[in-house]
Design brief:
Layout: H1 2-16, E1 25-36, E2 45-49, E3 54-57, H2 71-75, E4 88-95, E5 107-117
Parallel strand pairs: 3-5
Antiparallel strand pairs: 1-2, 1-4, 2-3, 4-5
Length: about 120
Amino acid sequence: MKRTVAIMVILLSILACEPEDSKISKDCTYTATVVDLKGTDGCGFVFKLDNGDYLEPVWRWGWCATPPLPKEATEDPLWDFRFVDGQHVLLGFEPAEEKGGICMAGEKVYITCLEVIGEVAVE
């Protein structure tokens, strides 16, 4: 009986542990602010999470957008997103580890979900 209880406790503790990649979400579970880093060498717009981490969004389909694009490209959350400095968003993301860049402001990610929160005055 004691052995069974011990095994159950060990299994429950393992299952209760949060995985290392728990910061990754395909749902819009993170709040962030759009930040314009175009003045920094090699940078553009990034997302700043509430915890202060920066995410550098990359597009799966490249940036030249030479037709014909796959149907999935037009369904990508960044397809028609207009970056506005200071805009608040909800987002989900996954690592884009195979992508490189020169900005080095944050982690390269594919945006999997993106929703605008409120409005920002555009000049």
